[in-house]
Each structure stands twice: as structure tokens, then as C-alpha cells.
Write a structure and sequence with these properties.
54 residues, alpha+beta, globular
Length: 54
């Protein structure tokens, strides 16, 4: 899953998710994306992942 930086997230989106225990990859590592994007490595328990983000 690829996400663009959300307006409510200030600063580094990669760090935002990492602080919540969600592993992502900065978008700059992919062709045609910059670091305002991340690719989320979704947990097997999607409900848990959503709780960590919200």
C-alpha cells in the first residue's frame, strides 16, 4: 500500500509510522515517488494496524 503524506501529519511520515510500530519504506526508494510518500508493510492484523495509526 502506498500513502501520500496526510495534512494532519507534521514532519517525516516515515518516522510518524515507525513511532507507532508500523514498518514502512520511504517513497524515495521507488521510481516516481518522493519522500512525501511511504509504502506500508501491512500487519496481518489490519485492525491492530489501524489502531496504531489513529
Amino acid at each position: 500500500m502506498t500513502l501520500k503524506r496526510l495534512s494532519k501529519i507534521e514532519g517525516d511520515i516515515y518516522s510518524y509510522f515507525l513511532e507507532r510500530g508500523i514498518v514502512t519504506v520511504p517513497g524515495g526508494e521507488f521510481i516516481n515517488l518522493d519522500n512525501s510518500y511511504v509504502r506500508i508493510r501491512v500487519l496481518s492484523n489490519v485492525e491492530e494496524a489501524l489502531q496504531r495509526v489513529l
